[in-house]
Amino acid sequence: MLEQILVLLPQVLFDGFILGFIYAMIALGYTMVYGVLELINFAHSEIFMIGAVAGVEVFRYLAPLIPNGYLLLAVAVVVGAAVAGLAAILVERLAYRPLRRRGTTNRLVPLVTAIGVSFFLQDLVRLIEGLWHNEFFLRMRTMPDLEGSFTLFGGAIFIQTKSVIVIVVSVLMLLGLTYLVNRTKLGMAIRAVAQDLSTASLMGINPDQIISRTFLIGGALGGVAGVLFALIYTTINPYVGFLPGIKAFTAAVLGGIGNIPGAMLGGLVLGQLENFFGTYLPILTAGNFGAEYKDVVAFLILVFILLFRPQGLLGQMVKEKV
Amino acid sequence: MSLLSLALSLVFLLLSFLAPNTLTAFLGLGALGVAAFARLEPRVRTLNLALLTLAFTLFLRSSGNTLGLIGLVGILVALTTLPRIPRGIRVALGLAILLLSVPIAGFANTFIFELGIQIGIFAAMSLGLNVVVGMAGLLDLGYAAFFAVGAYTWAIFGSPQAGKFLQGNFPLPGEYMYLFMLIAVVTTAITGLLIGLPALRLRGDYLAIVTLGLGEVVRILANNLDHPINITNGPQGITPVGRPPIDWFRSLMGALGVRLDETTDYQLFFYLLVLVMIGLVVLANVNLANSRFGRAWVAIREDEIAAQAMGIPLLPTKLIAFMTGAAFSGVMGVIYGAQRTFVSPESFTLLASITILAMVILGGMGSIPGAILGAAALTILNLDILKTFSEFVRTSLPWIPSQVDPAKYERLVFGLILILMMIYRPQGLIPEARHRAELEEEA
Amino acid sequence: MKVLEVQGVTKRFGGLVAVNQVSLEVNEGEIFSVIGPNGAGKTTFFNLLTGIYTPDEGRILFLGQDITGSTPDKAAKLGIGRTFQNIRLFGAMTVLENILVGRHIHTRVPYLHALLRTPLARKEERKALEEALSLLEYVGLLHRKDELARNLPYGEQRKLEIARALALKPKLLLLDEPAAGMNPKETEALQEFILKIRSERGLTILLIEHDMRLVMRISDRIAVLDYGSKIAEGKPEEVRKNPRVIEAYLGRGAAGGAA
């Protein structure tokens, strides 16, 4: 059994990274919104899904026009980011901002709204796809030049071209975001609003505008993650966001909610853990407990982190003021 | 105004005899709207409601059209919320609707029984969730997990399923269902303890996502515990789940002059059983709300730190709320499984939890009549109106693609309800006094 | 008899020492005030006594019993009642309900009795109601009993918060700036009220207050905190003359300070 585990290990680690990068990109959306609004934006999983669906549609319609898979993917990434980012802004405008305007103090209200938006968007996309194509289980069109693969270390790791693309795009995205947040004026404003919304607004920052842009950036990243997800897993439906969404949230908590490098780290760690358990649990339990328990593992990690290290790996402790 | 309103009700009564069709039903609902919202003298209003009760009953008896049921639910809401109706009349009319009108309608159309039972089951669960979310302010997104535990508690032992992993004679005889209603209280309360003990230590929004996750864990377990030992029979679910023998009920009804056939006997039985359960659950809810526990829950919802300074321990008090809600749900799970004779993981998804949450929110967090109204409205919407609308789309709007089937869009509807309620009426349709104050001031 | 003994208590937040090696003793029936400039650590000190924070060093004894690091609800059960600097009423509950919550630990109804509303539950509830009503009458808020706490005027909210703490039947009452935001006339009434509850309810009172006139008139003894450390302790006139105290207040130009 040990030998079996060791043989699989390089592949498991590699696949864990791919999953981890996707989680990391989604987790950033949760963590940024939580940073500025202290709201668990349940609808973010649907923003991710919208990105995935947009990617599928780009491939469906533009593949005949753009025979180069790489170029097509680039278009899909841009469109996915734009559509998802816009959807995120719309959600903020139409659902969350009215609540802020009213100045509600009850924490349940925004949370319940977010859940409502999440459910609403699932079926809205289903409705749109139903009217458009009369189906809502979608398949990503395959492009021959993206379907290649090769092996490393004498066959120890099997690598698809697509996986390499995912890693490259994710790393670029994460670097871009880090630059944006740390080096630009917008990034500084976002961090200021996250620190203290009312003081930031006294400093001449328009909080609504910054919140809007935070949703845009988080949504766009989620959308890119969605396109890459569709590329790798190929089958998509309007409900596909739920599990990656809750896991990405777990990743954000794992890294320290509100903390941007934390979300990236959390995503990578969770991707590894999940892939690890998904692969090895059936082997370790002689098939009695299968890969379907990997979701249970993710949920339990969430509970344990929240109980024993609620500030996450990189976060800082915040205590309620008495 | 008074005369007009009375005339409208009388016309509806007449048409219920002559032409009990959909148009008449809408007329009746209109008459009900006038009776409820127009400025009427209390006596006129009361008379109107009595007339409408009679009319809707007749309408249902001759047509079996479920719109009539909506009318009856509306009258019940009016009876519980409108001021200055004599108490005796409220009770008498309410009982007449529940014990006479609905069964009469049910004999005309057994789907009415089905609706009544589903409404009842969900109403009882909403009342349970109302304790957790409404009173104690704990957002539980995994509430369906308790429903599942209750349903499986009986389903496993009330079917041959238990024989697959235990020695003994299974299924247990149907009358054990009553015992298992008590056992389910215990098993779900323990589940509540197991989930609550870690989850309730967490702040509000974390609690939401952790209960969501742990609720999913319960569903995943139900889905996968068909191996290595077959406890739940996995995705196929368990069937047939036993029902209690009801010979005594048949003879009792026979003595009362009600003739039952094989489709209606269990329906009527479960309908009445569910009514009794709602009665008990409402009583428990009211008792708790007016006790030190209810006050402690609201205090915690309002201000945890101040509540602690009053000697209220947070975790135990929250746990009691959580376990109470769980137990309500568990009992209804047993009845649900027995009534449908079938239990599978599909009934206990996140959608189910959100549906119950939407019921509580729609009715008004913390409000007992609100929770019941929310359950009635969403169950009718889900099982009847959306299906009717689907039928209409299929037959009358053939240009709409076949995949666009309104009955499948509960999430759209429930999501929209949650969003709109939170933005425009967070206190719900029938607000509880405390929340009304809190949420209206913000509005 | 000593109601409260604080022995070398220290609390740090990160690098900041909010409370530094503070020791003091409060005798039964005393009104003991803790004063000091803003940010001196007074409220943190209260939060240590009531178990909201756990001290990093030192011990706290209440009626001879070690309560260091206990939880706020346990402190309340032992007999420490408190109010908050920024009033924390249960705003969406009525005045009466606020008092009933204050009486929570004295309403002994087991869960099943409450669920079934047994004769025992009814009896206890009736007793709770009677006591709450008589307490409201005592503090002069009976006419407000069915109003929502958040709708009361500010002065009455302060009063209700004290009444709610009294419902606990505490042995030690901690008042965190009860006179904040009150005009001189209201402060005078508050002074009467505090003296009255002390003598009629056999209370020991620990007071944080900025209004020096009130503090000087009402206190038996005073401790002064500055930067988390106790810099003086004694009778009002002693503290008033203490040069370190004068420096702590006037040295920072806090002219409204030492009266």
TrEMBL record, chain A:
Compartment annotation: Cell membrane
Keyword list, A-Z: Amino-acid transport, Cell inner membrane, Cell membrane, Membrane, Transmembrane, Transmembrane helix, Transport
Main subcellular localisation: membrane
InterPro entries: ABC_transp_permease, BCAA_transport_permease
Cell membrane recorded as keyword: yes
Pfam family, one: BPD_transp_2
Membrane topology (UniProt): Multi-pass membrane protein
Segments passing through the bilayer: 12-35, 47-63, 69-96, 108-128, 148-181, 215-236, 248-270, 291-308
Protein name, as recorded: Branched-chain amino acid ABC transporter permease
Phylogenetic placement of the source organism: Bacteria, Thermotogati, Deinococcota, Deinococci, Thermales
Automatic annotation (TrEMBL), chain B:
Subcellular location: Cell membrane
Domain of life: Bacteria
InterPro entries: ABC_transp_permease, LivM-like
Membrane topology summary: Multi-pass membrane protein
UniProt entry keywords in alphabetical sequence: Cell membrane, Membrane, Transmembrane, Transmembrane helix
Signal peptide span: none
Residues annotated as transmembrane: 52-79, 91-109, 115-133, 138-157, 177-197, 268-288, 319-338, 350-381
Pfam family, one: BPD_transp_2
Record's protein name: Branched-chain amino acid ABC transporter permease
Protein source organism: Thermus composti
TrEMBL record, chain C:
PROSITE patterns reported for this sequence: ABC_TRANSPORTER_2
Record keywords: ATP-binding, Nucleotide-binding, Transport
GO MF term set: ATP binding
PANTHER family: AMINO ACID ABC TRANSPORTER ATP-BINDING PROTEIN (PTHR45772:SF7), CONSERVED COMPONENT OF ABC TRANSPORTER FOR NATURAL AMINO ACIDS-RELATED (PTHR45772)
Keyword Ligase in annotation: no
Bilayer-crossing regions: none
UniProt xrefs under InterPro entries: AAA+_ATPase (IPR003593), ABC_AA/LPS_Transport (IPR051120), ABC_transporter-like_ATP-bd (IPR003439), BCA_ABC_TP_C (IPR032823), P-loop_NTPase (IPR027417)
UniProt keyword annotation of Nucleotide-binding present: yes
Superkingdom of origin organism: Bacteria
Residues in ABC transporter domain copies: 4-252
Protein name as it appears in the record: ABC transporter ATP-binding protein
